[in-house]
Specification:
Helix content: 25-40%
Bound molecules: pyridoxal-5'-phosphate
Structural class: alpha/beta
Oligomer: single chain
CATH architecture of the largest domain: 3-Layer(aba) Sandwich
Distance between the termini: 44 Å
CATH superfamily of the largest domain: Type I PLP-dependent aspartate aminotransferase-like (Major domain)
Shape: globular
Largest sheet: 7 strands, mixed
Number of strands: 17
Strand content: 15-25%
């Protein structure tokens, strides 16, 4: 059992109101709230240490550069990687783009990139573009009826033309944890490279990249209690060495001349051109400390308790359709009969409840669930059973008339 009073006291935003009601925040798959330690880092750095890193020959810059590198060490420990396998990015989107474009030169005509219909645009779009440029093909894993990767079809899916397998670890729509251990094992027996979109996994389940043996993993800091503007690209050293840098500029090169000869710095520095989000990156370390203090296993358990409670309470509601009743995480998608998802979300907002409505940036998901728009409630470590009960009560009585009344 989590000490929720202690946890919630660390998140000042939970004391604020929305629509005049206490805020109930269930949009954690979009972004998470920030604990005081993270806020303190940002204000401290902006107030008294807002200098650049790795460029200044003065004490303030040495200090802040050291803190920045300490954040890299913390991230490496958090996922059991080596420190030089950690590249800081602006978020999952930049990391996933860096991987697709950085590996592009390995693709030949007819090669196959294997992914899923449940993946996010940030993973699909870069590969769709790269496939067009290299005359390669995108193929999709066969899914079971409920939308899980069909392991009985894995052998056929991983045929000899497949070069890269790139997929979401935890679906931001269905909440399923993909069976990545099996996929990675079989892929490596066939010399394929596996890339994971960890945007919804690293902040929710314990991640050990060495045990998993994954080749690349990208995610965002803001979905794990850090500020926006920072993300992480993990790559096995041997694969980072083969990744072309899509971002060139100050800080990433050791030397260049007017003949166009460029010597890049070693990995990971060569991927970090330009001034990064310094305060966000340093605050990521505090976010990881917070998550570690709770424990990743406890966080996952807590989300599952909340989600099970929610599902059991709404299972008899005839006007609610849940599309992922067997979700493995705190992500639940549903619709209210006869009410457009955005209208229902606006109605919940008028009760202080924040949920997401729409396609959740996974525009191929309708192939799986048969609808394009849903409501999504996503629970996290600071949410309570009482908050879930409040959502249930508002959903019990929701009607089209009440939603429409909001606009009058
Ligand atoms: C599964 C998944 N991948 C990628 C992203 C993109 O993350 P960001 O917008 O932080 O780059 C998200 C964000 O919602 C996501 O849920």
């Amino acid at each position: 059992m989590l000490d929720l009073n202690h946890i919630r006291a660390q998140f000042p935003i939970l004391k604020t109101k929305m629509s005049g009601k206490p805020l109930i925040y269930f949009d954690n798959a979009a972004t998470t709230l920030k604990p005081q330690s993270v806020i303190n880092d940002v204000t401290r750095i902006l107030s008294s240490q807002s200098v650049n890193i790795h460029r200044g020959d003065y004490q303030l810059s040495y200090d802040i550069s050291n803190e920045y590198e300490e954040a890299r060490v913390s991230v490496a420990k958090f996922i059991n990687a080596d420190v030089n396998e950690i590249v800081f990015t602006s978020g999952a989107t930049e990391g996933l783009n860096a991987i697709a474009y950085g590996l592009e030169h390995h693709l030949n005509e007819g090669d196959v990139i294997l992914t899923t219909h449940t993946d996010h645009a940030s993973n699909l779009l870069p590969w769709i573009e790269v496939a067009k440029r290299r005359k390669a093909k995108i193929e999709y894993f066969k899914l079971t009826e409920e939308g899980r990767i069909d392991l009985s079809k894995l052998d056929q899916a991983l045929h000899s033309k497949v070069k890269f397998i790139t997929l979401v670890h935890v679906s931001n729509v269905l909440g399923f944890i993909n069976p990545v251990e099996d996929i990675i094992k079989m892929a490596h027996q066939r010399n394929m490279v596996v890339i994971l979109d960890g945007a919804q996994s690293v902040a929710h389940i314990k991640m050990d990249v060495k045990a998993l043996d994954v080749d690349f993993l990208a995610w965002s800091g803001h979905k794990m209690c850090s500020p926006t503007g920072v993300g992480v690209l993990y790559g096995k050293k041997e694969w980072l060495e083969q990744l072309k840098s899509i971002k060139l500029g100050g800080g990433s090169n050791a030397q260049f001349n007017e003949q166009g000869e460029v010597i890049l710095k070693s990995v990971p520095t060569r991927f970090e051109a330009g001034t990064p989000a310094i305060e966000s990156t340093i605050a990521l370390k505090s976010a990881l400390q917070f998550l570690d203090s709770v424990g990743m296993h406890h966080i996952h358990e807590h989300e599952v308790i909340l989600k099970n409670h929610f599902l059991s309470k709404i299972q008899d509601f005839k006007h609610i359709t849940v599309y992922n009743p067997s979700t493995d995480t705190g992500i639940v998608i549903f619709n209210v009969e006869g009410i457009f998802a955005q209208d229902a979300a606006a109605y919940l907002s008028s009760h202080g409840i924040a949920v997401r409505a729409g396609n959740h940036c996974a525009k191929l998901i309708h192939h799986v669930i048969g609808v394009t728009e849903t409501l999504r409630a996503s629970f996290y470590v600071y949410n309570t059973i009482d908050e879930v009960d409040h959502l249930v009560e508002v959903l019990r009585d929701i009607t089209l008339e009440k939603c429409v009344d909001l606009y009058i």
